[in-house]
Amino acid sequence: MPRDPTQLMAFKWPMALYNELRKWFPLFNLFSFFCAFIIDAPFGRFAPSASDPSTHSIFPLFNMQALQVDGIRSWIFMELISPFTFIYAFLISPLTFYTPDMPSLTSPITLACTLFMIHYANRALISPLRTPSRSKSHLVVVLLAAGFNLANGYLLGSYFSSPMARIYIGGSYAYMRPSFWIGMTLWLVGFIGNIAHDEILLDIRRKAKARKEKDGEEREDAKKKGKEPKKPAEKGEYYGIPQGLLYDYISFPNYFCEWIEWFGFALATSPPPVELSFASPADFIQSLLHNAIIPLCSPKAWSKMIKGNAYGFAPLLTPPWIFFFGEILVMLPRAYRGHKWYKKRFGESYPKNRKAVIPFVL
Length: 362
Ligand SMILES: NC(=O)c1ccc[n+]([C@@H]2O[C@H](COP(=O)([O-])OP(=O)(O)OC[C@H]3O[C@@H](n4cnc5c(N)ncnc54)[C@H](OP(=O)(O)O)[C@@H]3O)[C@@H](O)[C@H]2O)c1
Fold this sequence. Notes:
Blueprint: H1 12-35, E1 68-69, H2 71-92, H3 108-130, E2 137-138, H4 139-160, H5 163-169, H6 178-224, H7 253-269, H8 281-297, H9 299-307, H10 319-346
Antiparallel strand pairs: 1-2
The structure holds NADP nicotinamide-adenine-dinucleotide phosphate (NAP).
């Protein structure tokens, strides 16, 4: 049904917001990618501890204990933003001038939206509520992650309610496209892999917590009996060397699996972000070089993109691909620095052949 014409002006800002976010969100992620190789985001293993207030020498603000917030609650808060913004944008549908009908239950769009919600039900609620302990987070991290989730949820919700998504995956013909099923399978493999590897870490924590509680009871017991109590364990969160599944090859398989998940999602729900020819391997390489690699290496092309109108920015770069690239840009430096941290912390005991985040490569 067409929207009430008097409402069209009111619908200008959601579309303008979509265009600006589609341009500035990936550019900001790219900027943060370079920063994150120099500055460790102050959460998790890089959260400053009360006993070592000098952890972050570049940004002393990151060491301020007053700005550290509870790790689990802040995680729930920042991750819940994504599904809510997604639903909001889907309902207001910024890219249509008519009120779109809800997709049917059997539509591929419904399937894609359901998978997004399943991921966030786990990421924002199930996983944190099952986490035995999580280091504190700096307020800056919470605000930046909330910003990421606001932008990402809005872009994806707008995309899935747009005419473009309805053309690409709105009808049952999407079910006949091999890329749809390959993408969905990758999503599922990545989703299960992400949870399985997170679970290995949580198990290390559960066991450490149980040990700590037992030690505490034994110390109390020893005190009551007038014996010398055992020394308490080190303060702060416990870190062990994770083993099993892809941990035998990389330090951050949970991240790697998450990338597989969102790569599959983007492959299933959107055309490729650059024009590619699949006529032959040579054509494929040539199109990749001409349409992606050469423009990405050209400062002139970058300057044109940055100065240009938001509406014309990288026309094929749709929100599902922005999400996939965004995840890599945010998590790759974290994995690289985290891998170095593991090697420093565990020294010779850390498996030598283990890479950071891509088996056998990086
Ligand atoms: N980080 C990101 O930017 C980002 C972005 C999108 C999605 N995700 C996803 O969100 C999930 C959590 O991300 P994350 O960055 O917090 O992952 P992470 O650093 O691997 O930590 C996951 C959990 O395990 C604990 N942990 C980590 N290493 C441990 C070890 N060696 N021994 C015992 N416990 C350990 C952490 O506690 P501490 O907090 O105390 O270290 C945390 O509770 C992952 O599935 C990831 O794929 C992360």
